[in-house]
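Assemble and predict.
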Amino acid sequence: MSVQFVKHLFTVSMALLAVLGGRALALEAPQGPVLLTVTGNIANTNVGNEARFDRQMLLALTQRDTATHTPWHDGRVVFSGPLGRAVLEAVGAQGTRMRVTALNDYAATVPMADFYEHDVILAMSADGRRLRIRDQGPLFVIYPFDEAPELLNETVMTRSVWQVTQIDIE
Ligand SMILES: Nc1nc2c(c(=O)[nH]1)N[C@H]1C(S)=C(S)[C@@H](COP(=O)(O)O)O[C@H]1N2
Ligand SMILES: [Mo]
C-alpha cells in the first residue's frame, strides 16, 4: 500500500465517521417511554425510518413558555414545551405540511410555516404541571393566542391538536 493510498483511506474514513457520528449525535435513541414519533420526510432518525422522542429528548430542545388563554382552558395558563420548529430542526424535516395525529386518531394537516411564523409549542406542561393524557397530554399543540389574537379562528383551532403522538412530514 502506498503512503498516498493510506492517507486517502484515512481521509475517507474520517469523513464517514463525521457523517455517521454527526447523525448519531443529532438524535440519540430514546431511553424512556416514547411520547412523540416523527415520520415522513426527515433526515435524522433513531429507530428505523422514524425519529422517536422520550420526555428528556423533548426537554433538551429549545423550550418556550406561552402564557395564553385558549378555548379549552379556564383563565390564562402558562404552557411549556419545545418549540415546534425545534422539533422540525432536530429531525431535519423537509416538506411543507405536517399531518399531526392524536391518541384518539384525530388528525390535522398543519403547514410547516406555522411553526416558523409563530412560536407554536408542543406543550408538555401547564402551569408547571405535566400534562397527563386526561389533561389532553402528553403533548398539546399550543399557538400563542394572546400574543396574536388573529390566530383565534376555526382553522387554527383545528390545528390545535391535543394528545399528540405522531407528526408525519409531507
Ligand atoms: N386530539 C384532538 N385534538 C383536537 C380535536 C380532537 O377531536 N381531538 N378537535 C379539533 C377541532 S376540529 C377543534 S375546532 C378544536 C376544538 O375542539 P372542541 O370544539 O371539541 O373543543 O380542537 C381540535 N383539536
Ligand atoms: Mo373544529
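The chain has five helices and eleven strands.
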